[in-house]
DNA sequence: ATGTTCGTTGCACCATACGCAACGAGGTGA
DNA sequence: TCACCTCGTTGCGTATGGTGCAACGAACAT
């Protein structure tokens, strides 16, 4: 561990709480102010901090650059893996991670159920848009224009008795999903399985993926499934945090 | 300048371009890999970088925290001042910065016209919602619910012959503003002045303020005013960048 | 004017960050 | 299976670079 780097980073963290003067910083990290000054100068040269007026330091603009640039090549799958694994281990049910790309919803990660009864799915598989919870979440998050274009060209084959089979009903469902922040697949895809899904957001608030829990009906009735929603949303929140999302108060 | 801090920050900047291995980093900054390892460990302890698998380093999540936290207490006015000042000096016209809070639009900064003909306004003054360009921009950016609530309780006194005097016309105007990304006040507030305004966004893309240019009609006709729009939008983009906004490609 | 509170500079010392070289783990090819 | 190669990791001795000190200077207040 490098002492000076450690101190410099501590300074940055302190400044995250608001602007500080040199003396305040020196006292907070318990280092001589001349030392703090040198560290700040180095940080300033890299635009990690900037001076405000003559006696105030604050965080610099490099942090925005860095945060955003790292987001771009950040692999969502890897970032959210721990959160999803935990959900899978805690509930024992199948957990899916899906993302939307070019008019399709694709499963990009999967954690198998620990129960005997499993469902078939695999990474890379395309999810039907009209009867899966993840697709509902992802489509509901699209821009109105893109969403309308997509829905206009969709087909609605009835896979079970509960499948949504009309664009109108689907649009209404999407609106409901967007409103409440999670989606339900109530045996709309397969007779013996139902799911709930929630969105994962990045630093900008854009929905970058959806996480779902799939449960065989024989194991858990609808009430039991809905009881999982808070746990699911907690996972989605954790996963979003790993992608840079910070919930904005008020 | 502190050598180790300097090197550590350089490492962070390198990692912003994508994940790297220890050797790559050592070579890039031209220091021994054992040294780089120690720096990375320190950075890792502060969550500035994180390991991906066993032989990949990438930026850590602390950067998101920091970037967002610094945004919150960041003073928009101070951040965008240089951009607005430049617009004012270049065009010579009055430039306003306004923000929305609790149902009101307030001028929070102002750069006076250099021409003889000035307009009256002051920092802290409330802008009429129905007939100013800044208000149109800010109200158009509200959530549908908040916007509807606001418009429902608005009054539409006719201040000039051009003032919008009905909720319906105002709603249509807001939609047009949202669509094209800037707003016009075509002598709707005062007979002898017209304005254009554009939104300023933060890192999350939320509209945090609006910048406007106000021009006396005697100086510049409507064509001349509209010719200022590209310049205005450039300023808004610059100001947004200072608030952390990064335009997303595609 | 006088005092106070900051940021800033030069300097001498020694802690600390450094490079080196050797080790170990994990992967690859024959 | 073994040998080889490529990385990350560790311990160590050294001198470089970071540190605290004390004095200076600027800005502001009394």
From TrEMBL, chains A, B:
<dbReference type="InterPro" id="IPR036388">
    <property type="entry name" value="WH-like_DNA-bd_sf"/>
</dbReference>
<dbReference type="GO" id="GO:0045892">
    <property type="term" value="P:negative regulation of DNA-templated transcription"/>
</dbReference>
<dbReference type="GO" id="GO:0003700">
    <property type="term" value="F:DNA-binding transcription factor activity"/>
</dbReference>
<dbReference type="GO" id="GO:0003677">
    <property type="term" value="F:DNA binding"/>
</dbReference>
<dbReference type="InterPro" id="IPR005471">
    <property type="entry name" value="Tscrpt_reg_IclR_N"/>
</dbReference>
<dbReference type="Pfam" id="PF09339">
    <property type="entry name" value="HTH_IclR"/>
</dbReference>
<protein>
    <submittedName>
        <fullName>IclR family transcriptional regulator</fullName>
    </submittedName>
</protein>
<feature type="domain" description="IclR-ED">
    <location>
        <begin position="62"/>
        <end position="245"/>
    </location>
</feature>
<feature type="domain" description="HTH iclR-type">
    <location>
        <begin position="2"/>
        <end position="61"/>
    </location>
</feature>
<dbReference type="InterPro" id="IPR014757">
    <property type="entry name" value="Tscrpt_reg_IclR_C"/>
</dbReference>
<dbReference type="InterPro" id="IPR011991">
    <property type="entry name" value="ArsR-like_HTH"/>
</dbReference>
<keyword id="KW-0805">Transcription regulation</keyword>
<dbReference type="InterPro" id="IPR036390">
    <property type="entry name" value="WH_DNA-bd_sf"/>
</dbReference>
<keyword id="KW-0238">DNA-binding</keyword>
<dbReference type="InterPro" id="IPR029016">
    <property type="entry name" value="GAF-like_dom_sf"/>
</dbReference>
<dbReference type="InterPro" id="IPR050707">
    <property type="entry name" value="HTH_MetabolicPath_Reg"/>
</dbReference>
<dbReference type="Pfam" id="PF01614">
    <property type="entry name" value="IclR_C"/>
</dbReference>
<keyword id="KW-0804">Transcription</keyword>
